[in-house]
Amino acid sequence: MKKMRFPGRVTGLLAGALLAMGSAVSAASFENLIVNSQNRAEEYFRIVGGGQAATIVLSEEEFSQVVRAAKDLSEDVKRVTGTASPVETDGQARPGAVLIGTVGKSPLIDGLVAENKLNVDAIKGKWESYLIQVKNNTLVIAGSDKRGTIYGIYELSKRMGVSPWYWWADVPVVHRDAVYAVPGTYVQDPPKVKYRGIFINDEDPSFTNWSRSKFGGVNSKMYAHMFELILRLKGNYLWPAMWGKAFNEDDPQNPVVADQYGVVMGTSHHEPMMRNQQEWTKRSRQLGEWNYRQNGENMRKFWLEGLKRNAKYDNMPTVGLRGDGDLPLDPGAISTATRNCCTSSSTTSAS
């Protein structure tokens, strides 16, 4: 048996963290989207057949995160069939192509809508929704927003036979000589839970040691694989590793790569306003004690700096207060400190 890339115990924890990610699926069943038989091939859309792969087409105006995911789709086609799909960003619709784009962002998709070749009423204006239309010798993946389109891309990958866990758990990809899509319109409704993701918690020693041996640390090279996993599982959110770690400072590329993938970042339950506790620990001599009642001014300044630093990225800040290092607060000061802290945190976030 092939050894998993990551320790099974921790991989299991990651899987458990994403059990709540399921979305409500419309009446159209994605299970019937892909076939690998060439019987009745003339009725189906050829993704790969006869050693040729369909070209993937996007508009150059498309979100860069969507273009990156489309390149993953090209590689997934190669994983399944041995033949990669070319990727073009000229925005030109053509027969026999996979057309990908985001409603309101992609001239390619908006043009199809204007020409009555695509109906996006089922997803337009909705959160992280998508549809796949197979019709008239084209396969269209249209998303209601950036991540909706990305999810549609990875939906096709999954239906072809590429597991979201192909890298983390070395799930094998079954080879197919041909891959065809069955005509129809397949619609994915918005997720039931708006923000869904992973918290890399209690990561020492297993996860940390593995990351150091594989990537040289818990850094952007490792997080790129984590972000891809989250998106393939139709998640959108990450609380990063935090035992002695500072996501934004340990590797300045960490938030950049999160943005390149389109993943929303946060911080754990005891790390307010996009600041890891390790950032405070490193500055404790200058900033003083982690005590809001006695040192609130420095804490507010610390939080505001974190919000400004990460303002250009997609974030969901934690609001609340715990003791230093996730310890309990002083029982005598809990009520007043927490009330004042949350009021200040909300005001700081709004500013």
Textual characterization of the structure:
Strand 8 (130-135) and strand 9 (138-143) form a beta hairpin. The protein starts with 7 loop residues before the first helix and ends with a helix. The protein is built from 12 helices and 14 strands. Helix 2 (64-81) packs parallel to helix 4, helix 6 runs parallel beside helix 8 (253-261) and helix 11 runs parallel beside helix 12 (334-350). Helix content is 38%, strand content 15%. It has helices spanning 8-17, 64-81, 107-114, 146-160, 206-215, 220-232, 247-250, 253-261, 277-282, 284-287, 292-309, 334-350; strands spanning 23-25, 34-35, 45-49, 52-53, 56-57, 87-88, 98-102, 130-135, 138-143, 179-181, 184-191, 197-199, 237-239, 264-265. The longest helix has 18 residues, at 64-81. The protein is of the alpha/beta class and 351 residues long. The chain has 2 domains: 23-190, Chitobiase, domain 2 (2-Layer Sandwich), CATH 3.30.379; 197-350, TIM Barrel (Alpha-Beta Barrel). A 7-stranded mixed beta sheet has the order 1-11-8-9-7-5-6, with helices on both faces.
